[in-house]
Amino acid sequence: CLKAKPPRSLLPLPDEVVFGLAGVLLSLGHMAAALMVILGKEAYMRPMEMVNLKCEDLRAPVGGVQVGLQYYTVTVAPEDRFERSKTGVSDDTIVLDRPDWLGPSLMELKRGRAKLAPLFDLDLASGIKLWDIACHKLRVKAHRYQLRHAGASSDMLARRRTVGEIMARGRWAALKSVRRYAKGGSVQKAAECLAPGIRLFCQKMERDLPRILKKEIGVVVPDFSALPVADLAR
Fold first, then answer.
1. Is the pTM of this model over 0.85?
2. Is the CA virtual torsion 98, 104, 106, 110 positive or negative?
3. pLDDT tens-place string over residues 86-105
């Protein structure tokens, strides 16, 4: 039985692990899956929310002086398609204000496609399979739901957003659901579980991913098969 959500709360993944997993997927030729990983973190999105995204749900900046119009956005559960989110609401719009290359990269996925075509040409089962392959190659044990937690934790620890902004962005109803991600020590502990060579690769992916997406440079994943698995899903 495939599940989009684990049965318990999970700690966030370190940023570098997220980029490392995306780098592995890009090395295998799966750009859509790699961008899904980054979007899951940056927009605090649940796996099924990303699976359900259509091309029309991603919108480009329209300019102007009004705050927010300068950014790419994604809309979760559009009301005009009679959709509802997990919390029972429609038209949750998420501003993609960072990183600056994410919106343009996502736009490349929808170029020339029908507006109701899936933005990510991956169903839940395919996404899980590719995630498991990337985790295996990176020698980590993790769940896709941790991407959502990773984004909230990263923004909170870096003080990029207030608790209220994080709560709204993640569509959380309770403040305690947000405060659990303000655990810098837990993120550091997770990073320390990685072998040094894997950490170096992940950090390189964090720096190089924009150029890899533009196909300016390639990515080669070292053979980490002899290294121990870091269990980040504990």
1. yes
2. positive
3. 777 888 999 999 999 999 99
> What pLDDT digit, counting tens, does each position of 20-39 carry?
999 999 999 999 999 999 99
Q: What is the pLDDT of residue 7?
A: 44
Read off φ and ψ for residue 111, nearest 5 degrees. Answer: -55, 125
Q: What is the 3-state secondary structure (H, E, C) of the chain?
A: CCCCCCCCCCCCCCHHHHHHHHHHHHHCCCHHHHHHHHHHHHCCCCHHHHHCCEHHHEECCCCCCCCCCCCEEEEECCHHHCCCCCCCCCCEEEEECCCCCHHHHHHHHHCCCCCCCECCCCCHHHHHHHHHHHHHHHCEECCCCHHHHHHHHHHHHCCCCCHHHHHHHCCCCCHHHHHCCCCHHHHHHHHHCCCHHHHHHHHHHHHHHHHHHCCCCCCCCCCCCCCCCEECCC
Radius of gyration of the chain (CA): 17
Compute CA distances 202 → 21, 30, 127, 209, whole Å. 8, 17, 21, 10
Give, in degrees to the nearest 5, the angle at Cα 208 between 135 and 151.
Answer: 55
